[in-house]
């Protein structure tokens, strides 16, 4: 067994890459990427919103999000409209085609859940909750490394 197989970080990395590859296979017939798919899911669930609120929801910066939304707009999935009072604010709205994809892609979450061995809604919720808890813990480590190092009894290295 390679040494990296014993690392939590590598297990997460490998799971993330393989999950992204599974989504790629499922979304390929619609010429969609995973980030485009999650943008659609967000718009289906939350309705039209500003580019900045969509970026926050998807944890994507504007340098990544804007070109992606431009491609989706060119493909007829959504429209972007500048606010008349403040042109810095851009609202993203699904087109009819973008709305239609909701039914066409309804199988994707079920396929991912089945592929992950999640047999029911409770097992999916448990995994999602554990991943959210992990994300929050890693965010806390990122934002407050001294606190985590001190709790672990590890002195902060000097730069």
UniProtKB/TrEMBL annotation:
<dbReference type="GO" id="GO:0005737">
    <property type="term" value="C:cytoplasm"/>
</dbReference>
<keyword id="KW-0805">Transcription regulation</keyword>
<dbReference type="GO" id="GO:0006950">
    <property type="term" value="P:response to stress"/>
</dbReference>
<dbReference type="GO" id="GO:0003677">
    <property type="term" value="F:DNA binding"/>
</dbReference>
<keyword id="KW-0963">Cytoplasm</keyword>
<dbReference type="InterPro" id="IPR000835">
    <property type="entry name" value="HTH_MarR-typ"/>
</dbReference>
<dbReference type="InterPro" id="IPR036388">
    <property type="entry name" value="WH-like_DNA-bd_sf"/>
</dbReference>
<protein>
    <submittedName>
        <fullName>DNA-binding transcriptional regulator, MarR family</fullName>
    </submittedName>
</protein>
<dbReference type="GO" id="GO:0003700">
    <property type="term" value="F:DNA-binding transcription factor activity"/>
</dbReference>
<dbReference type="InterPro" id="IPR039422">
    <property type="entry name" value="MarR/SlyA-like"/>
</dbReference>
<dbReference type="InterPro" id="IPR036390">
    <property type="entry name" value="WH_DNA-bd_sf"/>
</dbReference>
<dbReference type="InterPro" id="IPR055166">
    <property type="entry name" value="Transc_reg_Sar_Rot_HTH"/>
</dbReference>
<keyword id="KW-0804">Transcription</keyword>
<feature type="domain" description="HTH marR-type">
    <location>
        <begin position="5"/>
        <end position="136"/>
    </location>
</feature>
<keyword id="KW-0238">DNA-binding</keyword>
<dbReference type="Pfam" id="PF22381">
    <property type="entry name" value="Staph_reg_Sar_Rot"/>
</dbReference>
């Amino acid at each position: 067994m390679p040494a990296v197989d014993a690392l939590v970080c590598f297990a997460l990395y490998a799971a993330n890459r393989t999950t992204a590859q599974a989504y790629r296979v499922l979304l390929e017939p619609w010429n969609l990427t995973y980030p485009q798919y999650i943008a659609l899911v967000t718009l289906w669930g939350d309705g039209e919103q500003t580019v900045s609120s969509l970026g926050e929801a998807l944890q994507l910066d504007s340098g990544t999000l804007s070109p992606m939304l431009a491609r989706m707009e060119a493909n007829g999935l959504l429209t972007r409209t500048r606010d008349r009072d403040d042109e810095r604010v851009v609202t993203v709205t699904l087109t009819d085609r973008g709305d239609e994809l909701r039914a066409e892609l309804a199988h994707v979450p079920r396929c991912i859940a089945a592929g992950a061995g999640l047999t029911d809604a409770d097992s999916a919720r448990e995994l999602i909750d554990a991943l959210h808890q992990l994300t929050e813990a890693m965010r806390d480590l990122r934002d407050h490394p001294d606190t985590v190092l001190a709790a672990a009894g590890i002195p902060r290295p000097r730069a």
